[in-house]
Amino acid sequence: MGEFDLIKRFFVREQSQAGVVLGIGDDCAVLAPTPGMQCLVSTDMLVEGRHFLSTVDPERLGHKALAVNLSDLAACGAAPRAFTLALALPRADETWLSGFSRGLFALADAHGIALVGGDTTQGPLNISITVMGEAPAGMALLRSGARVGDDIYVSGQLGDARLALEVFRGKLALSGEQFEQVRRAMECPQPRVPLGQALRGIAHSAVDVSDGLIGDLGHILQRSGVGARLDVDLLPCSAVLAAQAQAIRRECGLAGGDDYELVFTAAPEQRAAVLRAAEPSGTPVTLIGRIEAELGLRLLDAQGQVLPHQFSSFDHFKS
């Protein structure tokens, strides 16, 4: 099977999404922007052995490859519109491609986003997706908008993906059912796209948790020129993680990464509005801290005592 046969068989579909004038088949895609909207673009790359294991189910990998990009749009409050896929493959494995494209398009269809182009080549397995979305002019959520006094929230639960990684590394043991639960969290994250859009006009700032809560919240603090306190014992987690030792819970929740939840800030008087915004998507949100004028991040336990820590988030060139 040649390159163009591969593309036609597994990735070319009839396009009917709004705003897509021309998708795959020419030198460029042609998109029609919606009047009054701004375009938001993000790119993420997944490399075998660095971002995922060789044993991962290809359908789950297809899902995750798009999910991590949609999570960036969610953090900015954007509606997904289109994406491109650059795919390096060791060989044209039809079984693998069938599963990968099935997972990819299942999530794409769930969010109404079209594949409009990309590239394929032979080489070590590498997946790079660029997503394009839209938000009303001036309404995108940014990292730079946090204000002193803002509440800090996080969506969903934190830490299961890191817990799964520790099992893969042989450092922890879980039952089969427990392991499948945390492994699914690692391999099939759910991008919080509806929540992000619902928070436009309510949240002051947002970021998605890809490298760990401490590091990703740190991006908001740095860009906004503020500090924060986090109540670490309020971090939401699954029953599986809650059953682990305190040190493991804190490590996974604060510095685990691969959660793809949203961390966002909003004024205290918006608490009811935040809950209303989260309700339609069925996404729980938890108040976990507050933005402060003093620079830096302070971690507090349930008694209000500051915790010394050496937690750090993932960095590709330091890990």
Automatic annotation (TrEMBL):
Binding site residues for ATP: 118-119, 143, 210
Taxonomy, superkingdom: Bacteria
Pfam families according to UniProt: AIRS, AIRS_C
Domain (PurM-like C-terminal) ranges: 147-297
Residues the record lists as binding Mg(2+) 4: 27, 42, 72
Residues binding Mg(2+) 3: 27, 72, 208
Residue sites binding Mg(2+) 2 per the record: 44, 72
GO MF annotation, one: thiamine-phosphate kinase activity
Top-level enzyme category: transferase
Listed InterPro entries: PurM-like_C_dom, PurM-like_C_sf, PurM-like_N, PurM-like_N_sf, ThiL-like
Pathway(s) where this gene product acts: Cofactor biosynthesis; thiamine diphosphate biosynthesis; thiamine diphosphate from thiamine phosphate: step 1/1
Sequence positions that bind Mg(2+) 5: 211
EC number: 2.7.4.16
Catalytic activity: thiamine phosphate + ATP = thiamine diphosphate + ADP
Family: Belongs to the thiamine-monophosphate kinase family.
Full protein name: Thiamine-monophosphate kinase
Natural source organism: Roseateles oligotrophus
Lineage, highest ranks first: Bacteria, Pseudomonadati, Pseudomonadota, Betaproteobacteria, Burkholderiales
Name of the coding gene: thiL
